[in-house]
Amino acid sequence: MERIEAEEKAAQEAEEKRPAEEQRIKEEKRQEEEKRVAEERRIAEEQKKKQEELAEKKRNKERRTAEERRRADEVAAQAEDARESSTAYAKLMEENRVERERAATELEKRQKRIPSVTVVILPRSSGSKKKLFKSKSVISDESSEEEKELTPAPRGEKRKRPIKMIAKGGSYSDPDDDFEPEKDGSNPLPPSNNSSQNRPACSRLASFAINNANDVVGPETTHRNVREGSG
Questions:
Q1: What is the secondary structure of 7-41 as a DSSP string?
Q2: CA atoms within a 13 Å half-sphere pointing along the CA-CB vector of 226
Q3: 229 and 208 in contact (C-beta within 8 Å)?
Q4: Global pTM?
Q5: What is the rounded distance in angstroms from the CA atom of residue 165 to the CA atom of residue 137?
Q6: CA distance linking residue 21 with residue 8, whole number of Å
Q7: Phi, psi at 186, each rounded to 5°
Q8: 39 burial class (0-12, 13-18, 19+ CB within 10 angstroms)?
Q9: In this structure, are residues 151 and 137 in contact, taking their beta carbons and an 8 Å threshold?
Q10: Which of helix, strand or coil describes residue 75?
Q11: I need a surface site. Which of 10, 121, 207, 212 has the fewest CB within 10 A?
Q12: Which residues of 58-167 form beta strands (DSSP E)?
């Protein structure tokens, strides 16, 4: 009897404790579920963070690659510009060198074609001092047409254009002159309004110099209108 009462009492106590136990079990399950959800959320956040870090690293790598490519392109462009500038400078220097050589060659040719003519004027009297005049005329066979026109005609032929002769005391030329020298090479001067006695000594000396210049430079370089040249 006592055993039966003890069993009933124990069953009654168990019945009384069941709701509390069930509540405790439910609470434990709820806490475990919350822990599981929090852990899953934490893992998801960590994975998301890792993905973001990977994406950032990828973007940084792409950015660095683009920057390196841009710098490489700039360096290549600068090298190309420097090469073109160097080529252009070398070409310009070569053209200048060729031009200087051509000018030097042309100058040397011209200098070789410039004869030095010495005209000796003998005095009328033995007491006078002889005077020495030098003149230079440029005769070019390979130059312009204007220089070719200045070339004196052969002896005995009419010249196309008179040559200007520069001497001490002045110069002379007459484009309209149709003067032809004598066949024997002499060059008589036409009569003048002023006789040799009325002209000054320097004028008579100039006329005498022109007449005697035929022996040195030929009759082509003399002129009939310079007998009044200044001394």
A1: HHHHHHHHHHHHHHHHHHHHHHHHHHHHHHHHHHH
A2: 28
A3: no
A4: 0.31
A5: 8
A6: 19
A7: -80, 165
A8: exposed
A9: no
A10: helix
A11: 10
A12: 116-121, 131-136, 165-167
**Residue written as token pair 């032809």:** 180
pLDDT in tens, the chain (231 residues): 677 777 777 777 777 777 778 888 888 999 999 999 999 999 999 999 999 999 999 999 999 999 999 999 999 999 999 999 999 999 999 999 999 999 999 988 888 776 656 666 666 654 444 444 444 444 444 444 444 444 555 555 555 554 444 444 444 444 444 445 555 555 455 444 444 444 555 555 566 666 655 444 444 444 444 444 444
Q: CA 150, 152, 156: angle at the middle one, nearest 5?
A: 150
Q: Side chain identity at 220, as an amino acid letter?
A: E
74: CB partners within 8 A, 6+ apart:
none
Task: Please name the amino acid found at residue 134.
Answer: K
